[in-house]
User: What shape does this take?
Amino acid sequence: MPYTVGAKETLAALKEKSIKTYLLSAGLSQVAQRVQEETGTNGYTANTLIVEGGVLTGEAEVNVAFYNKDKHLPQILQRFNVTQNECAAVGDDPTLIPLFKKVALAIAFNPISKAVERNAHITIKSKDLRKILPHLLENNGN
Assistant: This one.
């Protein structure tokens, strides 16, 4: 899976400013783990394919169900010792809407629906993820 244009640079810029990043995905942990290893994000939560005896069983451990990403927010906030008012979320799909409603800054990046756009504080339509940086850095006092 290719990265969004500017994704690695965006994560590097946030890391340089000591801003913590966390991947919260209803996708697979194998992908999230790879992204974490390649980009240096501060953690991830995703769903895990179940393997028994070195063989995929066809089942998955659902750690992040669709439309409940906000349920993970308290654990993430506690892990980094921050409040909701110090937290931002960036995404494109409706699974982010509950989370968008609980964070201080919700950025819809190329939202796939009008509902996502309506529930975000900021909407950015660009091929380059670096376009989110001014908003994140401005709100971080950098």
